[in-house]
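Hello forum,

I keep getting stuck at the same step: I have a sequence, I want structure tokens, and every attempt I make locally crashes halfway through. Rather than fight my setup again tonight, could one of you with a working pipeline run this one for me? It's a single chain of 65 residues.
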Amino acid sequence: MLLILGNEIKIRLKEEEDKEWDFKLKEQQDSIDLQKSVIKAARDVGVAYGNKQPKTVTYNTRSWW
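Reply #2:
Ran it on my machine without issues. Output:
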């Protein structure tokens, strides 16, 4: 009887420990995903800005002198 109770306690503690570990891993993965999405958004803004730039630029240099 005592052995069965000890095993049940051991199993329950292992389950609780696994829950905590899974939660910490989930938090870390969410943080990484957030950082990746911020970087991707900044990249998308830069690419969109670059695509809107004119292909050639001409300067009127006659009035500079």
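The first helix runs from residue 2 to 51. If your local run keeps crashing, start a new thread with the error log.
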